[in-house]
């Protein structure tokens, strides 16, 4: 396929990426969506082969059923002039095989991180009933930010299909093949787990466990020979991590992990200090005829002990001989010799101590969830430096460290490389109305959102609770695309009460109306205060009331006896048309009000009950009307005292 060719009149070929036994892969540009994609094109010499066609279609079917961040996505499947092609997500990076070759030895923490991503993808496939059957580092892609993507489901099969591998034909790469597949049995989830165990072995040791002259000899070793010890190859690998390899690669599928999730959970804690003294896992496989292999580590340790014993014995003989020959000289110059010995010994101790201090292994501290500045301060105390910082989308709070990518132990002054979270790449916005603002805003900022706050007084919603949000619940957005604006309740508006003593009742009523206060009036005969003027008030001047609270005043009686009665008015909420708020205005008629004077103006978001005091003279009837969103919804004219 030549560069520039437009496949399906949409995908313009840029350059080849790789060749396989079934298909060739090219980098292309999607001319419609203006993005880079990878295109897998079935080889021309195989397009008429029914078995190859089925395998190609099976890969497309298997991959399109999966939607996981660690599985390469399939965008399109088509045919162009008889050529079958598949359009996939383009991953800019390399495969895990090349990555191991280039970066080995890989820090154990990064090994765990890589395997956790791989296991997450395999678990997602298994949950959909899909078994990969060809898991190997060549089918695992790793991008520039160390993100993992599994590809090539070309020989994947549904776990419900009881299809046997063809006789004398081994599907999958032999270095990662499970014993049951090598024997020609059905591939199961445990077959994939065996392959994952071999991949973990290679990440830890830099090589595969078995080599041979041909594929058959390697396959035979998989079901006859014990997997070599990773600790015999590298003694710095914890026993708890080797135990993961042992369990995953058990010859009997029933003795392996029950699921990829179970393997991931075990591997995740393999570097924990409380597992440092874990004993080697012993699995009694069903093949009793296997050749027994001596423990290389034990043999090496025994040889070292023997060598040390011989050195100690030789040193003791040498010291005895020197002591006899130098005895006479020591007696002649005892003081000078002691001084020289002391000086040399002190110098040796000083140099040795300095050498040890600057070359001693320093354990890298846990930097997760720290900022780069905090990490720098922590490392400085350990005589280490903060090195290369890379960024990646993560559930960890934006700006906080996700993980370190350096070895677990370093020497004085060396650098620790870290990955810092860029927040999530996309987020499904929830319904935050009614939630606490502080905790909601903190959570959104951790995910990379810019959060803005607007305050609004509310009679019915507690202070600090969210009233409204600018992004609809259920929307999936990029945190960096737009800020989240949250309208938050400021609680009820407070009103400072002035001194009403000797003021006319009409002034008090105007104040109460302007500040949405309920007014209760009592009367009392007075010889010193003019009629309808305030004698005393509750609360006192300088006090504060919330909107909707009651202000009570006692006024001088004009001689007409009055009586006050409280009426409860139940106001229904109108939610038609998606309304979230209703404006309600209340008008009353009593001794102190007429129906042209607004008594109360409130905003409600649910059915609300208010108490209204009516001050009535003898034989007088009170009245009220309630207007909601500009329409009168209720009224009464027969209120008596």
Secondary-structure map:
Blueprint: E1 6-7, E2 11-19, E3 23-30, E4 35-42, H1 50-64, E5 74-80, E6 83-89, E7 93-95, H2 96-103, H3 108-127, E8 130-131, E9 140-143, E10 148-150, E11 157-158, H4 179-182, H5 189-205, H6 215-224, H7 230-233, H8 239-248, H9 260-268, H10 296-325, H11 327-332, H12 334-359, E12 362-363, H13 372-381, E13 385-392, E14 401-404, E15 409-410, E16 415-421, E17 427-428, H14 437-446, E18 451-456, E19 466-469, E20 476-477, E21 484-489, E22 494-496, H15 505-514, E23 518-524, E24 534-538, E25 544-546, E26 550-556, E27 562-571, E28 582-589, E29 598-604, E30 608-617, E31 621-628, E32 631-640
Parallel strand pairs: 13-16, 18-21, 23-26
Antiparallel strand pairs: 1-2, 2-3, 3-4, 4-6, 5-6, 7-9, 8-11, 9-10, 12-15, 14-16, 17-20, 19-21, 22-25, 24-26, 27-30, 28-29, 28-31, 31-32
Word description of this protein:
The protein has 641 residues and is an alpha+beta fold. The chain is built from 15 helices and 32 strands. It has a 6-stranded antiparallel sheet with strand order 1-2-3-4-6-5, with helices on one face. A 4-stranded antiparallel sheet has the order 29-28-31-32. It has a 3-stranded antiparallel sheet with strand order 7-9-10. The longest helix is centred in the middle third of the chain and has 30 residues. It is elongated and about 120 Å long. The relative contact order is 0.05. About 8% of the residues have low confidence. Pfam families: PASTA, Pkinase.
Task: List the main descriptive attributes of the protein structure presented here.
single chain, 641 residues, alpha+beta, 6-stranded antiparallel sheet, 4-stranded antiparallel sheet, elongated, ATP binding, serine/threonine-protein kinase, non-specific serine/threonine protein kinase, transmembrane
């Amino acid at each position: 396929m030549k560069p520039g060719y437009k496949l399906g009149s949409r995908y313009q070929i840029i350059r080849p990426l790789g060749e396989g036994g079934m298909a060739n892969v090219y980098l292309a540009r999607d001319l419609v969506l203006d993005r880079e994609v990878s295109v897998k094109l079935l080889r021309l010499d195989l397009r008429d082969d029914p078995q190859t066609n089925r395998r190609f279609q099976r890969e497309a079917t298997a991959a399109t059923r999966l939607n996981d961040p660690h599985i390469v996505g399939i965008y399109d499947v088509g045919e162009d002039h008889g050529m079958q092609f598949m359009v996939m997500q383009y991953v800019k990076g390399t495969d895990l095989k090349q990555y191991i070759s280039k970066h080995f030895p890989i820090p154990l923490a990064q090994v765990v991180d890589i395997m956790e991503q791989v296991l997450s993808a395999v678990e997602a496939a298994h949950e959909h009933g899909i078994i990969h059957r060809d898991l190997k580092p060549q089918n695992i892609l790793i991008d520039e930010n160390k993100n993992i993507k599994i590809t090539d489901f070309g020989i994947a099969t549904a776990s419900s299909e009881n299809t046997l591998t063809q006789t004398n034909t081994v599907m999958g790469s032999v270095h990662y093949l499970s014993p049951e597949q090598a024997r020609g049995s059905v591939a199961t989830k445990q077959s994939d787990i065996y392959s994952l165990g071999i991949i973990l072995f290679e990440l830890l040791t830099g090589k595969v466990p078995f080599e041979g002259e041909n594929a058959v000899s390697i396959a035979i070793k998989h079901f006859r020979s014990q997997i070599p010890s990773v600790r015999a190859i590298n003694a710095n690998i914890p026993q708890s991590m080797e135990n993961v390899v042992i369990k995953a690669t058990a010859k009997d599928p029933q003795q392996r992990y029950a699921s990829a999730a179970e393997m991931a959970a075990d591997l995740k804690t393999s570097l924990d200090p409380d597992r440092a003294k874990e004993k080697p896992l012993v699995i009694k496989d069903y093949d009793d005829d296997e050749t027994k292999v001596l423990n290389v580590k034990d043999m090496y340790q025994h040889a070292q002990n023997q060598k040390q014993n011989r050195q100690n014995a030789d040193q003791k003989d040498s010291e005895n001989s020197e002591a006899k020959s130098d005895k006479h000289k020591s007696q002649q110059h005892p003081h000078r010799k002691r001084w020289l010995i002391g000086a040399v010994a002190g110098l040796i101790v000083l140099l040795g101590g300095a050498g040890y201090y600057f070359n001693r292994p320093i354990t890298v501290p846990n930097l997760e969830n720290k900022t780069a500045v905090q990490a720098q301060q922590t490392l400085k105390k350990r005589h280490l430096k903060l090195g290369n910082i890379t960024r990646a989308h993560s559930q960890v709070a934006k700006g906080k460290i996700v993980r370190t990518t350096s070895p677990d132990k370093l020497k004085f002054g060396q650098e620790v490389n870290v990955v810092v979270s860029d927040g999530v790449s996309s987020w499904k916005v929830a319904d935050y109305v009614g939630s606490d603002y502080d905790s909601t805003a903190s959570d959104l900022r951790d995910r990379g959102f810019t959060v803005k706050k607007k305050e609004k007084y509310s009679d019915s919603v507690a202070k600090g609770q969210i009233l409204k949000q600018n992004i609809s619940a259920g929307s999936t957005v990029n945190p960096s695309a737009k800020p989240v604006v949250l309208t938050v309740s400021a609680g009820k508006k407070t009103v400072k009460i002035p001194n009403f003593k000797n003021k006319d009742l009409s002034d008090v009523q105007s104040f109460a109306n302007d500040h949405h206060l309920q007014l209760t009036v009592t009367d009392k005969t007075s010889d010193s205060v003019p009629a309808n003027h305030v004698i005393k008030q509750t609360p006192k001047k300088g006090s504060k009331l919330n909107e909707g609270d009651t202000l009570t005043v006692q006024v001088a009686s004009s001689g007409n006896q009055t009586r006050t009665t409280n009426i409860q008015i139940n106001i229904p909420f109108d939610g038609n048309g998606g309304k979230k708020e209703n404006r309600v205005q209340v008008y009353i008629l009593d001794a102190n009000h007429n129906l042209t004077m607004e008594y109360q103006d409130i905003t409600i978001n649910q059915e609300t009950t208010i108490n209204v005091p009516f001050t009535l003279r003898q034989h007088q009837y009170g009245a009220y009307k309630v207007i909601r969103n500009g329409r009168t919804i209720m009224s009464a004219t027969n209120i008596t005292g």
